[in-house]
Each structure stands twice: as C-alpha cells, then as structure tokens.
Design a protein that fits this description.
This protein is an all-alpha fold and 97 residues long. Helix content is 68%, strand content 0%. The chain has three helices and no strands.
C-alpha cells in the first residue's frame, strides 16, 4: 500500500465516521420526536454529505433535518383512532344535551 492509497483510505474512513456522528443527531432526535423517517433520512444525508464535502456539507444538512423534525406538526390522535381535527362527527351547530 503506497502513501496515496493509505491517505485516501484514511480520508474515506474519517469522513464516514464524522458523517455518522453528525448524522446520529437527527436520527436520535427524530426517534425521540416520533419522526423516524426524517431521522433516518437525515442520518444518511449527513453520511453522503460528509463523503462529498466533509463537515462543510454534513453540518448544514443536519441543521436542515433538525429544522424539519421540529417544524413538522402532528395531529393528536383520539382513543377512537380519529385525529382531533376530524372531531366526533357532530355538527358544530347542533345543540344536543
């Protein structure tokens, strides 16, 4: 193994490790917030961005996915399985007692 291939091997392994560390942030937060799809997508996007440009690209990708994880709104579920926005099926103008 010559010096160039050893340097290239070290650079690739280092960028994979740094991308995995940065990508773990949206993956863990996405799992905690119930946005596992965005979390896993952020992990692999950070991994790929780290292979392309290193931390210059993977840190902004992490920030974008963190923004998306915290920004996306959820509709709370009622015990019947319907979302709270759907309501109970009663007309808002009806006066049942």
């Amino acid at each position: 193994m010559d010096a160039n291939s050893a340097f290239l091997f070290g650079a690739i392994i280092g960028s994979i490790i740094s991308g995995a560390i940065v990508g773990a942030i949206p993956a863990i937060v996405g799992a905690v917030k119930g946005r596992i799809g965005l979390g896993i997508g952020g992990f692999f996007a950070c991994l790929g961005g780290s292979l392309i440009l290193g931390l210059i690209l993977s840190v902004p990708i992490c920030a974008v996915f963190m923004f998306l994880i915290f920004r996306q709104k959820t509709t709370p579920e009622t015990p019947s399985g319907k979302s709270a926005e759907q309501g109970s099926g009663m007309d808002p103008g009806s006066d049942r007692e």
